């Protein structure tokens, strides 16, 4: 664990001491090496599932894919931000990279935490660099509003979580994940049960986001700079999912009745947010709502607490992380050239940038869960698990899958096909940096087709 | 405007949250033959409209509540609410009728609500030097270029059904005072053949014009002196004049109700984005498309792009050939003048006049010769020009005008296209995201609805859909192929 944490920590002095010319290549290379090392976590050989164990941190098949995803994302964020930060003063660039690294550190420690207290602290810590990123480097006035929504939705919902954790510690004497997975049901009075259940999960449901409390997500995603959008979509949403999966261990006999309204809300959210996608004019907003839609499926799957549900949730989280991040990168390449996110003004790119159209196609197909990509695997497993829970869910999930396909194709057709507007005739050609960025997103996705067991989690 | 004034009044004499209103006399807003269109009173509006009142009342209530509650009204946003937003999709430079027409059509054609974010930048909201409001307001289809005829015909159709297009719910209907009295062009012997050719082009495109011989002319308009006139061309429908200020305001009101943001400021720099200062503050606006609808000042605006630094005979060095030219309009009063059916008469000598209102007033002017173009640094009127060039021709053509009195005069700029005196509609060959709708040289106002639609189609659909205006694009300037009107004013 330290062999990842210390290099990540030392990336901060690197970004401050590197010469201006070498700042971006150095940090890029450094973070790539960290990613390479983090791949070692994916190999799980122990029977208790916990490996790389030390008193504070450990990895298990649930957290190791998420950890690798997080480490993988840092070089991609650095790669994506290089262009639009080029005209900023040097100090601002260094601060930006420092923020990304701090975020990375807090996320690694969050996913690898064995104590729920540490997880909670890191969960909150990750909010701060993200908030700074959104409010200082965003493009529009609305970013202040977006930052406020983002911060306060998560803070307000996670404060009850703190109290729940403290009460739990008081009752059972421990908050270590390794121990609480072995505890039996906790004796609590019947009325406090419901509050207990809700407060434990509310923070994560807001983070996922669940449909009723999803309002912060479109705002935050649209106003954030590209690196902010990438990390938000790929990893921060998964913090919610991961937290839910860990905490539901201690909530077990209650879950059977209390999960009902949230599952309905999640499934309804899948349908609603996919429909909203069809009517969006802003490209980033469309991708943001598509994230809400996919995460609705994940939330529903985690709430039903079956082995297949948990497996499907984890696969979909990883696959969606890579796909959504790739979509945001593509939207950014468009934005950097035309300075507008409105889809009606940026059509017909296939004629001008054909290779980028290939990436658009693959990513949009991944988004609509095309076989054999892991997106499909996750969705299919989730749909089957939900079907086992109740037949009626097929209406929601089926319609949701249909509309997902519709808006993914709509997004592809609107940006790539159609008449080329006159103002797009002389755009800059695609940089090889952008091609590299998208390859590094899609390559893991394609490789996971061949060995999905790496991201199947501990229910396998 | 009136809603704001009403609110002001309410704040001063409010006893409670709701105030009572005086019920006023009857007011007819039917388009009767004797309507003057303009409200003569400057006080309260003459009708009670509950819903307009409601908005103002609720706003007043909210303001009252905010003042009563504790807490300061400081907000970290909005340092200066007059500055434009930091980014927009389309920035239209120039808040004249062309700019607002383009803004309206862009909003009309977006397929979903808030599809495109449009800002219109105007540096002088009093419109003291804008060509739109200083125009004589005529509309005609008697051009020689089919594109021009199409534009005017489509615009006339738009203006006849203006309330279908520009009517806003719960607001007063638009009244353009469109007098369809027609244009009357008089041709001498030498140019009569040009008029005949133009006539056939116009009829082919669909304009409703007719040719009149001198005797027919004298029969129809007995007050004309037909000496020297060989042929006359008279527009029967869709020609005449209207109030430019009403059209501008109608476009503006409708566009703003659809979400276009109006900014008061001047564009001073293009740094891959548009920079607009107001006083000493400036705001960089990041945008995808810029539309140059700055009228007489378009050439100067395009200079900021650094076109003149490129060699003259390259495509990149093609300048935007629009410059301001000053034209005078004189209002004369002649009680024995021609009657109510006076058309907008244009003589072959360059003189023109039309009826203004119902009190025996007329608007007249003439185009100066190329050599005596007036100085464009100000809008001062040269009355000597009237004495020397306009009155003699006027009195020659209409003997009744020998006895008249000049009651008023003003000057305005033409956005004169020095290349071929016709509009430039299209995108710049080198700067891909700058569109132009300028250089109309005196017939911009009448073509503004259709030209606005053409530019909006170009931006949102990629090419022209309803009218093909490719002939009016930048290509002709690059290729140095002027498309001249024959017989322009």
TrEMBL record, chain A:
<feature type="transmembrane region" description="Helical">
    <location>
        <begin position="150"/>
        <end position="168"/>
    </location>
</feature>
<keyword id="KW-0830">Ubiquinone</keyword>
<feature type="transmembrane region" description="Helical">
    <location>
        <begin position="310"/>
        <end position="331"/>
    </location>
</feature>
<feature type="transmembrane region" description="Helical">
    <location>
        <begin position="436"/>
        <end position="459"/>
    </location>
</feature>
<protein>
    <recommendedName>
        <fullName>NADH-ubiquinone oxidoreductase chain 4</fullName>
        <ecNumber>7.1.1.2</ecNumber>
    </recommendedName>
</protein>
<feature type="transmembrane region" description="Helical">
    <location>
        <begin position="21"/>
        <end position="42"/>
    </location>
</feature>
<feature type="transmembrane region" description="Helical">
    <location>
        <begin position="352"/>
        <end position="370"/>
    </location>
</feature>
<feature type="transmembrane region" description="Helical">
    <location>
        <begin position="390"/>
        <end position="415"/>
    </location>
</feature>
<feature type="transmembrane region" description="Helical">
    <location>
        <begin position="119"/>
        <end position="138"/>
    </location>
</feature>
<dbReference type="GO" id="GO:0015990">
    <property type="term" value="P:electron transport coupled proton transport"/>
</dbReference>
<dbReference type="GO" id="GO:0008137">
    <property type="term" value="F:NADH dehydrogenase (ubiquinone) activity"/>
</dbReference>
<feature type="domain" description="NADH:quinone oxidoreductase/Mrp antiporter transmembrane">
    <location>
        <begin position="113"/>
        <end position="403"/>
    </location>
</feature>
<keyword id="KW-0679">Respiratory chain</keyword>
<dbReference type="InterPro" id="IPR010227">
    <property type="entry name" value="NADH_Q_OxRdtase_chainM/4"/>
</dbReference>
<feature type="transmembrane region" description="Helical">
    <location>
        <begin position="188"/>
        <end position="210"/>
    </location>
</feature>
<feature type="domain" description="NADH:ubiquinone oxidoreductase chain 4 N-terminal">
    <location>
        <begin position="1"/>
        <end position="110"/>
    </location>
</feature>
<feature type="transmembrane region" description="Helical">
    <location>
        <begin position="222"/>
        <end position="240"/>
    </location>
</feature>
<comment type="similarity">
    <text>Belongs to the complex I subunit 4 family.</text>
</comment>
<feature type="transmembrane region" description="Helical">
    <location>
        <begin position="260"/>
        <end position="279"/>
    </location>
</feature>
<feature type="transmembrane region" description="Helical">
    <location>
        <begin position="95"/>
        <end position="113"/>
    </location>
</feature>
<dbReference type="GO" id="GO:0031966">
    <property type="term" value="C:mitochondrial membrane"/>
</dbReference>
<keyword id="KW-0249">Electron transport</keyword>
<keyword id="KW-0520">NAD</keyword>
<keyword id="KW-0496">Mitochondrion</keyword>
<keyword id="KW-0812">Transmembrane</keyword>
<dbReference type="InterPro" id="IPR003918">
    <property type="entry name" value="NADH_UbQ_OxRdtase"/>
</dbReference>
<dbReference type="Pfam" id="PF01059">
    <property type="entry name" value="Oxidored_q5_N"/>
</dbReference>
<keyword id="KW-0813">Transport</keyword>
<dbReference type="InterPro" id="IPR001750">
    <property type="entry name" value="ND/Mrp_TM"/>
</dbReference>
<keyword id="KW-0472">Membrane</keyword>
<dbReference type="GO" id="GO:0003954">
    <property type="term" value="F:NADH dehydrogenase activity"/>
</dbReference>
<dbReference type="GO" id="GO:0048039">
    <property type="term" value="F:ubiquinone binding"/>
</dbReference>
<dbReference type="GO" id="GO:0042773">
    <property type="term" value="P:ATP synthesis coupled electron transport"/>
</dbReference>
<feature type="transmembrane region" description="Helical">
    <location>
        <begin position="286"/>
        <end position="304"/>
    </location>
</feature>
<keyword id="KW-1278">Translocase</keyword>
<comment type="function">
    <text>Core subunit of the mitochondrial membrane respiratory chain NADH dehydrogenase (Complex I) which catalyzes electron transfer from NADH through the respiratory chain, using ubiquinone as an electron acceptor. Essential for the catalytic activity and assembly of complex I.</text>
</comment>
<keyword id="KW-1133">Transmembrane helix</keyword>
<dbReference type="Pfam" id="PF00361">
    <property type="entry name" value="Proton_antipo_M"/>
</dbReference>
<feature type="transmembrane region" description="Helical">
    <location>
        <begin position="62"/>
        <end position="83"/>
    </location>
</feature>
<dbReference type="InterPro" id="IPR000260">
    <property type="entry name" value="NADH4_N"/>
</dbReference>
